[in-house]
Amino acid sequence: MNRSYLILLMSLLLTAQSELFAQEVNWRALDENANHLVSAAFGADYSSYYGVSYGYVLRTGRRPLVIGTEFTASFGREILDDWKWRTGIQAELWKSGAFSLALKPAFILRRYESPLARMYSAGTNVSLAFGHVKAAWGLTATAHYDRSFATHLKHGSLKESYPGIRDGWYGASGGNFKFGARAHWSPGSWNVFLHLGKQYGQDFQHNPTLPFFAELSVQKLLHARL
Fold first, then answer.
1. Fewer Cβ close by (within 10 Å): the C or N end of the chain?
2. What is the sign, positive or negative, of the torsion defined by CA atoms of 44, 105, 54, 120?
3. What is the CATH number of the domain that holds 80?
4. Could you read off the pLDDT of 5-43 as tens digits, one per residue?
5. How many angstroms separate the CA atoms of 71 and 123, rounded?
6. pLDDT for 174
7. How many domains does one find in the chain?
């Protein structure tokens, strides 16, 4: 396959993987009656976006698990041109005093469309968060790895420059890393999260032109039982 086309395809995939939004959890604010997490977020990466999410707190042992689902879409004229749906599970692996290490694996479906091509992609994401977490406030360092393992492409104007390319399914097509810092403030049953950081291509060489990201999310803890 043409090398320049591969580089362009990688850029499209990085764009499709851009939105960060994930169901955040303040583990110290989860009391025995907090069962539902409802969140809304706004952020900027390759583009500006918004998202909503829901998480259910599952208590099966000494530490709770949060099972959640999230939907993110880019601002624009066509609301559903670019979107991402993710579902996953979160757990606090370790804690000592106010220090905490949490893990979140997730499965992701995404859609991205531009004049160049339309793509549907399935992939996985793994996130780690380590830092100082208290009920009222906290500061953590975060690391994320996002990888697409199957992508369906329907080419648009790309065919004019690369007439030999074919529509259809493609296998594993790369991923990206994101590293950042996240602060939270938790008044009462509300949580406010601010997340800032930088994104890198999987090989740390083919990085986005605008690699920085920012996200603000607001979350409500609900105590009602379903």
1. C
2. positive
3. 2.40.128
4. 544 555 555 555 455 556 789 999 888 778 899 999 999
5. 15
6. 72
7. 1
Distance CA 138, CA 184 (A): 5
- pLDDT per residue as tens digits for the range 166-193: 888 887 667 889 999 999 999 989 999 9
Which one, of 51, 98, 88, lies nearest residue 73 by Cα?
A: 51
Which amino acid would we find at residue 153?
Answer: L
Give the pair of three-digit tokens for residue 101: 């290490």
| Residue 129 burial class via C-beta count within 10 angstroms: exposed 0-12, middle 13-18, buried 19 and up | buried
Residues 144 and 155: their CA atoms lie apart, in Å, by 29
Structural domain boundaries enclosing 50? 3-222
pLDDT in tens, 86-98: 999 999 999 999 9
